Amino acid sequence: MSNLHALLKDNLGERVLLLGNEAIARGILEAGIGVVTTYPGTPASEIGDSISEIANEAGLYMEYSINEIVAVEVAGGAANCGVRALSAMKHVGLNVASDFVMTLAYAGVRGGYVIVTADDPECHSSQNEQDNRLFALLSNLPCLEPSNPQEAKDMTISAITISEKLELPVLLRTTTRVSHTRQPVVYGRLTKPKLKGELIKDVKRLVMAPANSRPNHDLLLKKVEEAKEISETSPYNKVVHEGKARTLGLISSGSAYNYAIEAADLLGLDARILKLGMIHPLPEKMIGEFLKKHKKIVVVEELEPYLEMQIKAIAKDCAPSVEIYGKMNKPYFARTGELSVRAVLIGLAAIMDRKLPIDFKKIDAEYAEAIRGLLPRPPVLCAGCPHRASFYVIKRIGGEKVIYPTDIGCYALGFAPPLKVGDVMICMGASIGTAQGIRKATNADVVAIIGDSTFFHAGVPGLINAVYNNHKVVLAVLDNLATAMTGHQPHPGTGLTGMQTRSERILIEKVAEGCGVKYAKVVDPFKVKEAEAVLKEALQHEGPSVVVFRAPCALMVVRERRRRGLRLAPYRVTDKCTNCMACIKLLGCPALMVTEGKVSINEALCAACGLCASVCPYGAIESAE
Amino acid sequence: MEEFNIVLAGVGGQGILLAGEVLGTAGMKEGLNVVAGEIHGLAQRGGSVVSTIRIGDRVLAPTILDGQADVILGFEPLETLRSLKYASGKTCVIVNDEKIPPPELSSKNLPYPSISDITKKIHRFTKRVIVVEAASMAKKAGSSLTQNMVLVGALAATGKLPIKKESIIKALGELIPKRHLEMNTKAFDLGYTYVEKLIQHALNF
Questions:
Q1: Domain boundaries, chain B
Q2: DSSP state, A232?
Q3: In this complex, do A485 and B104 lie within 8 Å of one another by their Cβ atoms?
């Protein structure tokens, strides 16, 4: 929705088309949540972004925290004072936050506290596709899982209620297909957020020293038993589809439920369907009763057999003869990637020995023929992206011999040809740490690549480690002055906050110096020669060094110029061009094209950065101005 | 109503998400159940992008089953080909002829296939194909950035949508910032008029 202020309308019963994440933002407003914290990450970003736009008007506090663990600490601290709070993050963000969350489960909260984990099956925009339902089992925290935006909003409010009843944080687990699905959502009443609370000092409850942790662990398990009772009567756990024959029962939750219903319909199956929305703890009695009533049970779920494992354990005690199908013994559904109506259709048809209503083989064959020879179109660095200039400089100086551990952000795309800078990439902040091990093991020159937001998020401890243990590595910070990949959210280097106020910028080079780095310099990546000289020096420096490549994200530059009504003067190829293809082979800029055998620049795409002009050996590219 | 499935396919940055939101909002205004699927984040950076809109009382999943698209709105010729797994004989394909070569095509100095070769391939799935010169119409409207609305206009004129033109115009008014509204409405109208005329001459569309 382009005008997020519409989220603030107190129109009970109005139907509004909302993205799943916007629906969670609306749920925040209806639940009277006072503190919202996040670190941006796809597919969770729009929760925090929506709230950031309207936080002042809504009268709540919102921040883009430096990383996910600080986000849960800030929100958890407020919740300990009786203020309602929510933290939103992508699935891998919960790994970062989990140290705090696992033990906050022992201490509990007084104000309702919801932790949103937005999972990304199929790795649409992530480095892995871990199934965070397992975090619910690991932490013993209650977990709700919506199937659509309406449920995402409603469950945000229910999660607060459950959290306050049990005095426990509650997980709200979405996936890409819920967070990024747009559907009409019916508004409820807004609740004025309460921002102020009180910390009631209680060492036994809040100081998790071993003597206090042990009894609190027992208390947590008691709360799980209470949560089971809530789960048994939860409106989110219900039989939604009454079959007549009582032979086949389906159990599903989240996005998978949508596919299960549509696939069962297409196959004309007479099935009863148990939809689970509170997925931890599971309603064991309800599931037991459901199992007893059927001969065959099919569990339809995405990623890990989280439900299937537990349902099989329930069956062992109360319905040992029921046949249970899913992905454990024989894989009717894949344990990797996203499910789809097609995948569920194929699995169900195999289990029920039915003929498929659609000839997928024929479609596949025709499709394969239509796309034969069609080149893939992977995401690329945008035209005018300053990272391209940085990578060009880094590659010119470091060549093929230098090892380049890289990190999470747009600049991860640097691994692709023609730039090919990026040899190892695992998780946020890992570039600088892995660089040190690689240097130790190989003695090779190592240039670690990290973004500005990622540097603040998880790069600093690694940098201090490099200084203190004297690892001779270069850290290239590609600073484009925003958390660009997720939508240009602010970070401590930008001078902006989630409340849309100004704050004093924290400069990466100063942080580096404060960490004890003796060589820390800032360069403009588009000033190629100067940047090359600095990087060369950094590589020769004894001990760790930092080079900050600073230039704003091209998308921000283009938007700003458009907003001000300034024309971009695109570059053009003159007749001095010999078609040597150097620009295309070195840069891979999407605005550089070959049309009818000749190099040309696409006017609409060119962001006028001028990098191609500076690499052309014949001076054949010039500004059209 | 029976379900109606729309696929929007193109390259990240072409305004596909906004086009989808316009159609979804218009459908919702008519009281229809709309379920739209989007992909955000890294995939948006110049990569292949597919958005889906499904309309119908029984629709739950945001994604579309193979062969089940009623309409494919192709923002770029090669991306239209890539979306053909959603096509069958019933599908109406609208394709923008504005070519954006994939980076590998340029770096390997390979030719971009001709539009007639591309439509031939689409014809193997369906005879209902409309080629729209959205780029030139968008420029006429005031900016090449309005190609998305030219295509939405073209789609509206096919008469296939279960959504009225007026609802789309209303949705435009709500979703497009005021200073860009006139340009976008003009783009919509140009796309609409073009296809409206085209269809008058086609008997069997």
A1: 4-133+161-176
A2: H
A3: no
Q: Which of B109, B104, B103, B100 is nearest to A597 (CA)?
A: B109
- Mean pLDDT of the A131-149 span: 98
Taking CA–CA distances from B64, the nearest residue in chain A reads A341
Domain ranges within chain A, ordered by starting residue: 4-233, 238-364, 386-559, 568-623
User: Scanning every residue of chain A, which has its alpha carbon at the shortest distance from the alpha carbon of B52?
Assistant: A181
**For residues B30 and B53, what is the distance between their CA atoms, to the nearest angstrom?**
15
> What string of DSSP letters covers A482-511?
SBTTTT-B--TTTTB-TTS-B-----HHHH
C-alpha–C-alpha distance, residues A36 and A54, integer Å:
12
ipTM (interface predicted TM)? 0.95
B38: nearest CB among A182, A412, A594 = A182
**What homologous superfamily is domain B4-133+161-176 in, according to CATH?**
Pyruvate-ferredoxin oxidoreductase, PFOR, domain III (3.40.920.10)
- Domain boundaries A238-364, CATH class: alpha beta
- Burial of A326 from C-beta contacts in 10 A (0-12 / 13-18 / 19+): buried
Q: What is the 3-state secondary structure (H, E, C) of A178-210?
A: HHCEEEEEECCCCCCCCCCCCCCCCHHHHCCCH
B151's CB contacts (< 8 A; 6+ apart) are B19, B73, B75, B94, B96, B132, B134, B191
Express each pLDDT in A560-573 by its tens digit.
Answer: 988 888 878 899 99
CATH topology of domain A386-559: Rossmann fold (3.40.50)
CA distance A142 to B108: 54
At residue A426's C-alpha, the angle toward residues A425 and A428, to 5°, is 100
- Where does A491-610 show beta strands of DSSP type E? 519-523, 545-550, 571-573, 592-595, 598-601
Burial B34-73 (b: 16+ CB within 10 A, else e): bbbbbbbbbbbbbbbbbbbbbbbeebbbbbbbbbbbbbbb
- Among A183, A240, A485, pick the best mutation site for testing chain B contact (most B Cβ within 10 A): A183
Tell the CATH topology of A4-233: Rossmann fold (3.40.50)
CA–CA separation, A125 and A123 (whole Å): 5
Model pLDDT for residues B31-42, shown as the tens digit of each residue: 999 999 987 766
- B133 φ, ψ (degrees, to nearest 5): -85, 75
Query: What does the alpha-carbon distance between residue A546 and residue A228 come to, in Å, rounded to a whole number?
Result: 52
Task: Give the model confidence (pLDDT) of A49-70 as tens digits.
Answer: 999 999 999 999 999 999 999 9
| Interchain CB contacts (distance < 8 Å): A and B | 180
B28 → closest Cβ in A15, A181, A581: A15
Closest CA in chain B for residue A587: B107
How do strand A271-276 and strand A238-241 relate by DSSP bridges?
A: antiparallel
**Packing angle, helices A460-468 and A430-442, rounded to 10:** 30
**pLDDT over 80 at A308, yes or no:** yes
Looking at beta carbons, which residues of chain B come within 8 Å of A42?
40-42
**Fold match flag (A238-364 vs A568-623):** no
Please answer yes or no on whether A374 and B78 come within 8 Å at the CB atom. Answer: yes
pLDDT tens digits along B94-144: 999 999 888 888 888 888 999 999 999 999 999 999 999 999 999 999 998
Spatial CA neighbour of B95 closest among B114, B67, B68: B114
Residue of A nearest to B58 (CA): A262
In angstroms, the CA A491 to CA B59 distance is 40
Residue A15 is inside which H or E element, if any? strand A15-19
Which among A17, A369, A592 is the nearest to B24, CB-wise? A17
Cβ count near A239 (within 10 Å):
16
Of B39, B45, B84, the CB nearest to A370: B84
Distance from CA of B99 to the nearest CA of A (A): 11
Report the alpha-carbon distance of residue B121 to residue B116 in Å, rounded: 9
